[in-house]
Records
---
Amino acid sequence: MKTIPIIVDCDPGIDDTIALLTAFVSPELDILGITPVCGNQPLGRTVLNALQVCELGGRPDIPVYPGCFRPMLREPIHGQFHGKTGLGNTTLPDPVKTAEEMSAVDFLIEALSLASAKGEPVTLCCLGPMTNLAVALRIKPQIADGIGRVVMMGGAYREPGNRTMTSEFNVLADPHAAHVVFSSGIPIVALALDATHQVMLKPEHVTAFSRVGGRISHALGELMAFWDRNDVARYGSRGGPLHDPLVIAYILAPHLFGTTRARIFVEYESELCMGQTIADWYGKSGLEPNAEIVTRVDAQGVIDFFLDRLSRYAEKVPA
Ligand code: RIB
Ligand code: CA
């Protein structure tokens, strides 16, 4: 089977963890590396969490490259729904695995330059603030030729923000990085709150996931239960929106999603609307579309997809 080369840029993070665990057990994906960044948690913690999740998922083989320890310009902000450590109240063993000496930025430059030379473009899965990719692009813009597409969780187009009135956390945390990526010419698939709020991980789903079997069952059930916002007025139901995992689902099951092409922009100067993402749906900017914005999601299909994938741990990575 021809595999899809990916790099997972992330800030674990409970939903980042679900995305990683799904990717680990999907043979269609060739995970070249994981590049944690300052986001939900400070960098030291997102690196540690990534190492622990690699071991939880039975994938200590995947290299973890420490990324940027703060956004390009703004002061760091951190996640509010991931608990003190970024992994809810789940305690994972201290990892035997260690992070690579090479930085995430150097790894991105090396790996994407090679991908360009070989004509085998990589899919960049961006699950957190896009600082690592933006800095790499600023050092060597030609690496864009080694990126087939950026599939990113971030932004809010017709939805209000989740961290401020206008802005979603990943883009708000580093709007300058988002601007570098949005203006790079690299094709973007944008899984914004418009998409992720269509898929709520409800308590009944959590019960099903906690029974998938294998070594991840207990931790997965704990992490997913912690993710419940319990805010029916805001989300229309119990549960938490499945943000980052939709990036992996989109790559592996694109038939579950519908998109609309548009040019996307980000506000990085206004304090009131800092990090707001704007879609030019009707060509008013005169600029060519640069993104497929996911506007439709088969929510039940996505839940079924994750149940199928994560159930594979029962035989592949037994307890
Ligand atoms: O707004 C949702 C995003 O912010 C997700 O990536 C979540 O992990 C947090 O980083
Ligand atoms: Ca994230």
---
Amino acid sequence: MKGFPSVLENINDLNLMQIQALLSLTTEYKKKDIDLVESFYEGFKTPVVATSFLENSTRTKHSFAIAIQKLGGMYIDFNAETSSLKKGETLEETLLTLKHQGVDCCIIRTSVSNELAQFKGNHPLKIINGGDGTNQHPTQALLDLFTMVENHGDLKGKTMAIIGDCVHSRVTHSLVELLPQFGMNLILCGPEGYIPESIDSKNVSLCDNRDEAISKSDFLYLLRIQKERHTGKEDQHFATYHEKYGCSLDVLGKLNKEISVYHPGPANIGVEISADLIKSPLYQGYKQVENSTYMRMAIIAAILSNRNISCQLELNGDDARIKKGPTGL
Ligand code: ASP
């Protein structure tokens, strides 16, 4: 995709047109629902894409791995635990080494917030942020957006409460940047320490009362308590969390709100969500997981196709594939 950033670190790295193009491409991939191995890179050098996850992950890493292989790319799982990073090598040196081995793009997860910003404008290779500390998780927010548009159509004027540990949630930080661009209003809801003290945005408000936030919402987004990122007294809410902020069919029923419930996973049953709600048709978590592969295929295709200006991605035709330019990919 022409003009697509070489380092996708933050939602704000994308403009609205690029986000719309990603939504269209994701729709194409989902519609086809086939492996594109045969057609996508026909006649091109096979792209080599690595994941380097310096923090735990189930969903994100696997869906990237599947996406790369569905696109016909060569997938390398770069194991950071057994790499030279453990011998004191900097992330930049490691990435330069991968580049010289022929890796075109690396998806990185790190526990250090903003660690990837240093590569903007001076990137060793293409980089996609797979989640950095408490800062950003742009690909999660984009696949959430796709799922919401698929479920609800036009999002303009819709209100969604994000209930949970918003302060420590990188997903929340990306959603707050993304969803208001589509006309949505967000309510960040949670106890003290889980929501910011103030927020400077006309589309985002704060609320410490679960039922009030749910009553105002068209759908909900629940979050896990991000215990591994707590440094102070945030854990004091744990014992009473389910009662005060957890969601169940009973809570939604009493408020007469049979509404969709999103969750980025991993979900902690009995804390932010009850067993009956997660098993109910209101729960959208598995649909988010299903869509994650298609959105991540679109993101990888977009970032790779910008590798050579002679390669353009056809976004509108039936056949979403990279056109071969004079020099190939
Ligand atoms: N999987 C998401 C993340 O990596 C959400 C979470 O861990 O709670 O941020």
